[in-house]
Design a protein that fits this description.
Blueprint lengths: L3 E6 L2 E6 L10 H15 L6 E6 L4 E3 L5 H8 L3 H19 L5 E5 L2 E3 L1 H6 L4 E4 L4 E3 L13 H6 L5 H8 L5 H7 L4 E2 L5 H11 L16 H4 L1 H8 L4 H10 L3 H10 L4 H14 L5 H18 L2 H10 L17 H8 L9 H4 L2
Parallel strand pairs: 2-3, 3-5, 4-6, 5-7, 6-8, 7-9
Antiparallel strand pairs: 1-2
Length: about 350
């Protein structure tokens, strides 16, 4: 059975992730298959729109399949991960810049690499079971696959809050934060997909759109602004440590589970991207971090603690936010010179 189903139906190109037993985690091969299909449909006049969805009940996509990244990293074969991320980011950029409408159906978990596939679509549909997150700081990475751009465009302080606490968003939260657009009850998805396939008209989404309840993120926006609209992780950490309320205490607990180096770099990057809408800039800077993360960051330790041995006790390179030198942040995000991602060349 194929890990991905690629088909042309009616006026639509349809890509269905098909690894439900692995929560539809993306393999390197799947990423390249997606790219090949998109390149082919781009120039096919019979295709009016693209649909992304996934089989299984639990997830659209739980992220990238990191087993090989970990095993190769342990062998000090850092080039494996560097090529994986280079090719993945190129596909993320192609989705973001695609000339035809892309509609994604984001049921269950959509995390990490799943955000890179599903949340750069033009029309991102969520349902009652949708859970979206950028959990990278918890495994020693930072929000990538272009997710840093979405976070940078979120309301004041919200992007940093979501990025460094790894908080999961339900459908209303995802729409409020800019990771999704439209709520459609899951029972209506088959009919909507068939309508899109037959008509090739993305506007028919409106036929099934429903309102969601008010987002809890919106209800907490003043607290999020107060504690997370800062220039550095050290400022955020200090504010949360001094606060005496439930929101701050829970946020600090979540932050303490993240890699301090990853969180500090996340704050820097999101602030750096404020006011821009360039997916290429976001991916280029993200790549500087992931290029170095296996050798110089907390990635291998994060995967060991969270996924391989599952002791949930990572030994990060820095004890806490206060102990991350500015020089370490500068190093992880500085130019790679001849190894820069350079999407201008990759996509030319």
């Amino acid at each position: 059975m194929s890990d991905i189903i690629i088909e042309t139906r009616g006026k639509a190109g349809k890509i269905t992730l098909n690894r439900p037993e692995a929560l539809n985690a993306l393999t390197y091969k799947m990423i390249l298959q997606i790219e090949e299909a998109l390149d082919k449909w781009r120039v096919n006049p019979a295709i009016s729109l693209i649909i992304f969805d996934a089989n299984g009940e639990r997830a659209f996509c739980s992220g990238g399949d990191i087993a090989d990244l970990y095993s190769e990293g342990k062998k000090r074969n850092f080039k494996f991960g560097q090529k994986f991320w280079r090719d993945e980011y190129r596909v993320n950029a192609k989705i973001h810049e695609y000339p035809k409408p892309i509609i994604s159906f984001l049921h269950g978990f959509t995390m990490g690499g799943g955000v890179g596939i599903g949340c750069h679509a033009n029309y991102r549909i969520v349902a009652e079971d949708s859970q979206i997150a950028m959990p990278e700081c918890g495994i020693g990475l930072m929000p990538d696959v272009g997710g840093s751009l979405i976070l940078s465009n979120a309301p004041e302080g919200l992007g940093i809050y979501l990025g460094i606490t790894c908080k999961r968003m339900g459908p209303a939260e995802a729409i409020y934060a800019g990771f999704a657009d439209t709520y459609v009850p899951k029972k209506d998805w088959p009919k909507l997909k068939e309508l899109l396939i037959q008509t090739g008209n993305w506007k028919r989404i409106i036929d099934y759109r429903e309102k969601t309840q008010k987002s809890s993120l919106e209800e907490n926006k003043s607290l999020i602004r107060k504690y997370f609209m800062k220039n550095s992780l050290t400022e955020i950490y200090s504010e949360l440590k001094c606060a005496k309320n439930e929101f701050a205490e829970k946020s600090l607990m979540s932050l303490n589970r993240s890699s301090p180096l990853s969180a500090a770099c996340t704050v820097r990057l999101i602030n750096l991207l404020k006011g821009t809408n360039s997916i290429r800039d976001a991916l280029n800077i993200e790549y500087r971090f992931t290029f170095r993360a296996t050798e110089h960051g907390d990635f291998l330790e994060g995967i060991r603690a969270q996924i391989i041995e599952k002791d949930k006790k990572p030994k990060w390179k820095h004890k806490d936010a206060v102990n991350v030198p500015v020089e370490s942040i500068d190093f992880m995000l500085k130019s790679l010179n001849e190894n820069e991602l350079n999407l201008e060349e990759e996509l030319s």
